[in-house]
Amino acid sequence: QLATSLAAQLAGKLGAGARAQKDPIPLPLAREAARDGAALVHLAVEIGAGRLRVTADVYPVPRTVWARLRDPEPGPIAHAYAEAPLDAEIRSFLAPVPLVAARVDRAKNFEGDVVALACGDLDADGSLEILSVSRRRVTTLRLRGGRVVPLSSRSWPDVVAVHPSPLREPLAFATLVERERDGELLPPFADVGLTDRARSVRFDGKLQAVAELPGLAIPDAGGSACTTTWGPLLTGPLGPCAPADPPPATSALSGRYDALASARLLSARGEPFTVWATREGGAVELRDSAGRRKAVGSAGAQLAIGDLDQDGEPELLAALDVLDPLEDAVVVWSWRRREGAPDRAALQEILRLPAPAGVRALAVCPPDGPGRAPFTVATADEIWVVR
């Protein structure tokens, strides 16, 4: 169905006289089917490494018997290629991804004070990296053979000054940001905010600090926004973190939060929407850009949002609100926003992973294959990647 839909869309773009085959057929049969046409456009559709790749080749159609005898299978006269990350719209053409089972890859970490995670292709090399933020350093890493392998690392004292009055229990956020200009993707960057430090920092793909940011950089609709006040709770107006940044999707934080997560997702129709999760007084609330709200109830201060099964509906990941780390776990809820009235949208627990060392940080990764989007967990002594 996906290949057929792409062919139909391309035929519509080409205009009158262009028609798409109802079913995918190999090139030799496509040549035969196009004998009466002016040209043949053959699409090759592939899904790999979390991306949809489409190659288009234009073949001339021999007009006479003699032309067919001289060259029955002429080569392409034009070629085009495009790719896009898997999203809910593309995923709607594929088999549903179950979320009830998980494979967990664990690796011993070299530090135990991780306070924030992010996940994505920060260095634009085609592979995902984990961005780990601790109270001592910022590190990009991967898991290999049961080990945490650092790729780049920056010590905080070498990057930005310490805050004059750091919190005993820090607030920390890491956000990987991708933006476009004139339809072209710009190099990704990471905004990291940590209350131990006097300012937040923007890092490039090589983990070089490119800017110090005012306030605390927090995730906001696929990008970052910066608080204008500094304290033990997140509250008050938000502003752009840098002069060239777009205005925040949220102009102000109306509550007094000790944890926050946000993500910009796509519905199954390809429509963008944003989801926020905020924690106030130990209780978590979800809301989206359409005005829907859902109370989750008690949850820990480690939060993340993503669309794990790429069905166009968000999942909330959270730790438990427990004092004993032995009782901790990662819990995944699916928010079925389309089911019922906006104030009654279903929230269903779909996965629970015990984490007896205690959950320190969570992050959702972009899809890197046809299965569910992975997510990463930092415990007191390990880094996990869950698929």
UniProtKB/TrEMBL annotation:
InterPro entries attached to this UniProt entry: Integrin_alpha_N
Source species, domain of life: Bacteria
- Its name, as the record gives it, is VCBS repeat-containing protein
